[in-house]
Amino acid sequence: MLGYIQNYSILSFTKLIQKHSCKCSPVLTFTLPLYRYMGTLGSQVMCDNIPGLVNKQRQLCRQYPKVMQAIGAGMKDWISECQYQFRNHRWNCNTTARDHNLFGRLLIRSSREVAFVYAISSAGVVYTLAQACSQGELDSCSCDPTKKGSSQDAKGSFNWGGCSDHVEHAIRFSQAFVDAKERKERDARALMNLHNNRAGRKAVKRFMTLECKCHGVSGSCSVRTCWLAMADFRRTGDHLRKRYNGAVQVAVNQYGTGFTAAHTHFKRPSKNDLVYLEDSPDYCIRDHESGSMGTGGRVCNRTSRGVDGCEVMCCGRGYDTSRVSRTTKCECKFQWCCAVHCRDCHQQVDVHTCKGQT
């Protein structure tokens, strides 16, 4: 949902916010609460000034300003999850405030990294909205109203109670808002975005769990009250990272309605797979055209042979070593009752950082 093709959606709020705020770091820029500017400017003015929104998106923006606020407030969570998943990767989901969107020109490409960004952001919208509904923050939704009466699972019968996360509502709204532009385009890139958006939404629903509370004499579980709850967003992030690792390179079929595998030895993608159209850059050097920030200055692990190792991370350019002092808590002791006392221990450690391009 994000990108050069889609700066008309969530990230466009960020650009508009920059016009009404200080020039902050990328992190502060995309975590600024949108509701402050919604309240100052008014929802209609805000929505009318977001560049590139199609009519459907503008209509939803005006109609549900509090939903837009919730989405903006939740952006930091899925971006943080993206950065966690790729913290040891040459591409580390880095953001920039100097371009038209948080990911710069990276999103012009149709690479597997872009596939992940679309999927995790689509999942993030669903998660944020469902959570806001359950917490009573939105007038347009609440708990899942279909979870009433009694039901049963492998453990027996139970009564619906509590507050089940209304994921279906969040999925419907996300699909209407996020996919609106792509449904008007219907070219190869739009089909790719739609597929990955859907995979992200499905990932949130995949990890819904039934949580129950027991009622009965002496702690027995003769009667259960249950509700459906979303799992921690980390599980969605882990799942989509695995899908990134197994992403399928595709080409549009002869009818322009779907995909075929780009190579005969590749599997045909399922609805849960991430798909991409073109190869990724190697992300070794800073390249504005490809959106690569390079790995110069990145911390690497000298003893690792994995992607976080200095040989791989630094792309053979070598690395610099510096000795720094770190303070950690040590010799912690539990004292009755009830505190833990620790000493501050200082140690010198070597930090290895990749050399920049010459």
UniProtKB/TrEMBL annotation:
Domain of life: Eukaryota
Principal localisation: secreted
GO molecular function, one term: frizzled binding
Presence of the UniProt keyword Phosphoprotein in the record: no
PROSITE patterns: WNT1
Stored SMART domains: WNT1 (SM00097)
Transit peptide as UniProt keyword: no
Its biological purpose: Ligand for members of the frizzled family of seven transmembrane receptors.
Protein name: Protein Wnt
Species per Swiss-Prot/TrEMBL record: Oreochromis niloticus (Nile tilapia)
Phylogenetic placement of the source organism: Eukaryota, Metazoa, Chordata, Craniata, Vertebrata
